[in-house]
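ingest -> validate -> predict -> emit
validate: passed (alphabet ok, no gaps, 317 aa)
predict: started
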Amino acid sequence: MVTQAGQEALEYAGLKAFEGRAAATTGEGRDPVNAPMIRHWCEAMGDTNPAYEGPDAIAPPTMLQAWTMAGLSGYAGRAGAYDDLLALLDGAGYTSVVATDCEQEYLRPLRPGDAISFDAVIESVSPLKTTKLGTGHFVTTRMDVRAGRELAGTLRFRILKYAPAARGAGRSGAGGAPDASKKLRPRPVVNRDNAGFWEGVTEHRLLIQRCRGCETLRFPWLPGCNACGGRQWDTVRAGGEGTVFSYVVMHHPPFPAFDPPYAVGLIELAEGVRIVSNVVGVAPDKVRIGMPVRLEFMRADAELELPVFRALEGGEA
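emit:
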């Protein structure tokens, strides 16, 4: 008779066998490094570093993954060990997935015209872990990105494939109604680099980082200045006025904590930085680029408040 612990050991041995197997081999980027994609990236990020413009321009290092992405159609014939591993985890009941973190190492600047290739390997599969989300396995892949034959950088992606934990088991409202906790919004990832921002939100203050060296404002929060590389910073409080720089209206996929359709905007604050948040106070199909908005704080549930932006035209002022 196989005990539960023995079954888990057998299962893990099968998963462990995937370590070191290729997830992608000699993949080729859809497009060479190019100025239009660099420009669009910098405009979306609000990054005005002069190194990304002109005849000697380089690509922002954080674009490393962008040059490997296949788009919605994907890469033909790429099914392999990674898909087999995910299918095995699905079959074992670990049917949910969440991305947990990404580590990037930059070794060589990329310039317009560079042809990109990449290889990926399944680096590790963790033993069974229990988290607040549920029980499952962390899977880490490593991708080596090359310009020609020269290694340009390394990306490590880590996901958790898990079986969701039961929430509020045995609890229900009147008439057996589902526990409302099942509809909680996802929690923001709070770390040492952005903890101050979320502390400000709890105090109904939207804080923007400011470099102490060159006084450049930056958002989202980062450990160093994009403009001068300085490590010292303080904060300024946003006044709350802004405009819709860009937006999307979300219809699909539906999530239990959200009620589509709803508008997600890239908001340009009066201070000059941009933030992604919901646009409220107006029907989603009435949101327009250039629409003035004002900051307010929305209580999503008993433990979570979020900054959102209320439209000042076409809705309630």
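The radius of gyration is 23 Å.
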